[in-house]
Amino acid sequence: MPHGRYSLHDPHDHTPLAEEHFQCAPGPSGWRYVSRLTGPAGDHRGSVDLALDDLGRPLRLELHAGGWQVRGAALDGVTWVRTDPTGTHATEGNVRAHAFTGTSPAFLVATARLLRLTPSSAATRVRLVAFTDPVLAPRTVDQSWALVNSEAHATDNGPLTVEEYQVTALDTGEQHAVHISGDVVLAAPGIELEDLQTPPSRFA
User: Is the alpha carbon torsion for 62, 63, 69, 71 positive or negative?
Assistant: First the structure.
C-alpha cells in the first residue's frame, strides 16, 4: 500500500499551496485513495477520499476544503452534491462527463486508469468535472490525453514502469506532461512527490 507525501504549488509562480499526505491501494472493487491536506503553516486544509471500480470509474468521491464538502459518483454521467460550510444548503449537479478531476494527484491516476492508453493509442478526448479550490466550485473541462512514452527503470524492488502522458486543455490548447508509475504521480505541473514509503502498486 503506497503511502507518502506530495507538495502542491501554483504551477505558474510556484507559490506553496499545501502538502498532501496520502495512501492508496488496489482492492477487490478497483482502487482507493485517501489523503489529508495541510497548509504551509501546518493547518488542516481538507481531505480527499476517492474509490474507483475496476474500469476506473468513480464509485465514490468525497472532498473537503474550506468547510465545503462534495460527494459524488458516476451516475448518468457524473453526479454530485455540494454542501456549504454551514451545512444548511446543498446543491446537486449532474454532467454528461466521464469522471472527476481537481488539484489532488489522485485524479491524474484515476484519469489514466479510466483511459488505459497504450503508446500506439491515438490521443483520447475526455470530459471531466473539476472541483476548484478553495470552495470546490464545479467546472466542466475537456482534455485530450496521449501516452507518449512507457519506460521500465531498474530499482532495488524490481523494474519500475514510468508512463509519460501529454495532457492538452482543449479550451486553451495548453499542454503539459504527467509522469505516473502504477498508482503514484512522479511529476506533474504543480505536483512534486516528496516522500514515498513503499513502491507504487502495479495494476493488473
Answer: negative
**Quick check: 89 and 82 in contact, CB under 8 A?**
no
Q: For residues 48 and 35, is the Cβ–Cβ distance under 8 A?
A: yes
pTM for this predicted structure: 0.95
Radius of gyration for the chain, computed over Cα atoms and rounded to the nearest angstrom = 16
The per-residue pLDDT for range 145-203, each reduced to its tens digit, is 999 999 988 877 778 899 999 999 999 999 999 999 999 999 999 999 999 998 899 87
Coil/strand/helix, residue 145: strand
C-alpha closest to that of 71 among 53, 93, 88, 86: 93
User: Could you report the per-residue pLDDT of 53-112, keeping only the tens digit for each?
Assistant: 999 999 999 999 999 999 999 999 999 999 999 888 999 999 999 999 999 999 999 999
Written as nine digits, the cell of 143 is 482534455
**Distance separating alpha carbons of residues 61 and 152, to the nearest angstrom:** 32
Distances in whole angstroms, Cα of residue 1 to Cα of each of 120, 196, 202: 30, 10, 10
- Give the C-alpha separation, 51 to 58, whole Å: 6
Cα dihedral angle (85, 87, 89, 92), rounded to 10 degrees? 90
